[in-house]
Specification:
With 336 residues, this protein is of the alpha/beta class. It has 8 helices and 18 strands. The chain has helices at 7-18, 30-37, 94-110, 156-166, 203-214, 253-261, 296-304, 315-318; strands spanning 50-55, 70-71, 76-79, 84-87, 114-117, 135-138, 141-144, 170-173, 185-189, 192-197, 219-224, 236-240, 243-246, 265-268, 281-284, 287-291, 308-312, 329-333. The strands form 6 sheets. It has a 3-stranded mixed β-sheet, covered by helices on one side. Strands 2-3-4 form a 3-stranded antiparallel β-sheet, with no helix packed on it. A 3-stranded mixed β-sheet has the order 6-7-8, sandwiched between helices. Strand 9 and strand 10 (192-197) form a beta hairpin. The termini are far apart.
Length: 336
Amino acid sequence: MTRAMSEFDHRYNMLIERFASEPEPAFETASEQAFTWGREWGCNSDIGTLRVVLMHRPGEEMRVVDTLPHIPELNAFGDPKTGAYWRGDTRPTLAEQQAQHDALTAALREEGVEVVYLKRAAPGRHKSIYTRDSCIGIQGGAIVARMGPRIRRGEEAPVTETLAALGMPILRTIHGTGLMEGGSFAYIRPDLAVVGVSSRVNEEGARQLEEALAVQGTKLIRVQIPGYRLHIDGAFVMIDHDTAIVNPSTLPFVFMEEMKRQGVKLIHVNHEDPSWTINCLAVRPGRILMSDKVGPRTQEALDKANISIRLVDYDKVGLGGGGIHCSTSPLVRDRL
């Protein structure tokens, strides 16, 4: 008699049936995170209590800025061959930038945040200080971004090395022709987020981000960033459960109206405030670190909204193109 299967195959099949694969609980659940990855990683908001943040203290990679030729018609310094550039005619010293970065780091630690430094900066990548752009913390892990301009391409490898050394899951690496920088992503609440499509974020990058978020039940709104502005965190940052600080002159009307429909109160900056006022960081709901140059009217509006402010001197670092928000990439926040 011809047998349907061998005794070995029969026993093997019965064994695997009894010890079956288990898709539940999901990867992002607290129990799975703790068992497999040692702790809960990532973020599901921009305001949950900040526990771990990725930063990079400016170092030798900044020396490239001193070598850049002046471009008078742009009021900037830059080298088209390397793609390196510096906006404006003021180049602060490395010591000045390090001092302000150290002060921000100290303020974060005093707020109870663990600061993790990038393991290294890619050679000559003088914008590595702006760690917000190179990775995005989402629930259960991180997305490694894919930087747009040539001077930032190459930051992806050091951030990947750093996350791996920490033991943080990397849920996605933006690949193919996708472009994505973390400064153009924001959680509105755990089930709703926004990405700014611009010269630094293209539709393919947004699509890949959307796929990763959809697995977790988060809907992604796209906003077209006007002109050659780069990131949404220059115009929109969540600072409490239902409150955002915004620049209404650089956000689409339809997006601001949608935020109102979603129950988000918008605090407007004004002409008295410096460029990086909005580029603040929530360390817990209703508590933010913000540029000490913020104007009195905006401070009053924040106070009326019950937002607690800690002022930080950060104007020298801001000359390089990014503020407090740009310089901090949350890796762990308490979940909402």
